[in-house]
Design brief:
The chain contains 10 helices and 47 strands. By secondary structure, the chain is an alpha+beta fold. α8 runs parallel beside α9 and α9 packs parallel to α10 (641-653). The radius of gyration is 32 Å and the shape is globular. The chain has a 6-stranded mixed beta sheet, with helices on both faces. It has a 5-stranded antiparallel beta sheet with strand order 1-2-8-4-5, with no helix packed on it.
Length: 670
Amino acid sequence: MNSRKMISLLIVFVLLFGGLDFRAGIASANDRLDFREGDYLVSLLQEGDGYNRVFKFTPGNRITATNTKFRLFIYAREIEPTEYTVDYENCTITMRHAPDLGAELHIKYSISPTFEWGEGESGTDKIGNALSEGDGSTRVFKVTSRYTINSSKNVSLYIDGSKVRPSEFTFNHENNTVTITEKRRALGAKSKIYFYFPKTSISGTQPSHGEPAAIPPSGPAVDPFPNTTVKPEFQVPSGASFPGAITLNPDHTFTVNTTAATSRPAYFSYLMVKNAKGKLVKQIRVTPNRPSTYSLSKLGLPSGGYYFYLKTVNQSGGLAASIPQFVPINNEPQKIQVFIGGQLQGYAQAPVNWNGSALVPFRAIFESLGAAVEWDSSTQTVRATREGKTIVLTIGSNIAYVNGVPVTLSAPAQLINGITMVPVRFVSEALGGVVEWNEASKSVVVFQNKPDILTSVESEKTPIEAGVQEPSEPSASSPILQNISKGITNSSDIVFVIDVTGSMGEVIDYVKETVKSFVDSVPSGSNFAIVGYRDINYVDLYNPDFEIFDFTNNKDLLKAQLENLVASGGEDVEESGLEAINKAVQKLSGSKNSKRIIFITDAPVHDKGTSPEMAGFSLEEINANLQANQVTLDAIAPQSGLAHEQIIKLVQSNHGTLYDINDANLMQLH
């Protein structure tokens, strides 16, 4: 029997014996073909037949004209809203012209709170649920789901496209609430919050709460939430389990070593350095799975206390960090330093070394440790009290008393230059502190409590605040933009084309701050504009992932606009940089000044010549457009790989310079 006859008999059999269930199964599956694409959900429609102008849509959520933004596509081309009408009550679309035979149609509708969808998040079948947007203060969010959730395990949370660490939120399945912990600051206004729970934790459905559409009866052949592309789960653990270490060496060097767990494709590892105030002052790209030793003195840091930690990120929002460790730096090793709680102490009488013991002024050390101090000049006795503990020392005596119990001192309290000096180790330990001596930096380090140093993306802002450099911080100016500004000798119109995909998260803040400094250094009369972009392509006519700001010569306004750029979302794929450059050229087309584009990205671009389905322009077309409009193009981009091969062509043909994106951070050690 040939295959054609077998297929015919199979169809007859299905129609005779299982037709009703078969047809119902197909209809139910088509009713639920919603999946997420950015901040939109997608639902497929029936194909065109050349005659029909009315199409039924059955989204998996109850949508109205007021709770979502509705978009219609034929193939991948968005249709103007004037070409169709939407009846939300009856879920129909009426088009002005009938689509051609075989035309593929789909709708997108923007995600609103309580909307749900299916997704293979972190390699597991999960249900996505949109929570209410952030308002700058709220920490507890209600999960309004059509399902009954019977477990709090294996849930995950994403905020503006970036995955939140498990330690930064909790989920209570008994009352369906997500709580942002104090380890993370409250979410900003309009933050998009997506919560995921595994399908295996579903024990039933909830009575209709008035938001999602009704769910058809479940059955073994029906899955109302088909998976999208599965992302590989981020594999690097955080905290004490982070697969790497920083080792301080006696010769004033340190060694960084991360294991093979951090060396996967599209994973990037950094040494992060924060000052005693918790502000990021250095970010150094490190090579994974290979130990590297650096000189502390070459960091160029002023004397003081710093916190070092290792961090690994990937381009899908995964991140992990080691526990920060305190590192004292002393550029004058002949002088003893004292740190209490990470803060460098300043004393009227400098600490002294007396037979191997560090002595410090008694009143300053006791008060910095929270003790009340009394001095009895007649008996030359110091008395300090704190939280029920009393310490008594007498000048010249090597016996002290702690709550009346005698203790032998390594060095007696004594007068030096008229100031009473006491042994710092004894005093600190007697009041509950942990004391360490760092030989390399000649420093006494005292901690009464473990320091709470954040390692979140939000905490890793550069030390440049509104263009003002703190005097105690090392310079973090960008040699890249300094070099570009030297070549601008007359008034220019400049468009910054900035990739703001999630993979730029480790450099975007630094880029923004150095752009602010850059605009202050170019000739007066210059104008500036911004085109920010993510993983998008030419088919979305009104794609919200473009963030475009018009020309302005108001530098304060430009700096405020830069603050609106947040790196989020995206994958480890080519970006739509050519589309963004084309938009920048359009903005420059009527300019009377010199024209310049500064293109900043860490990824290749979609090229119509190699990926026509993803791109609206080829490199050749963009290059011709730049030349026709006499636009100089500089780029800050990778120095190797496909991105370099593509972007160097644009740069060299348009009188610009290509700089290494790896240098667009606080510091690179060479």
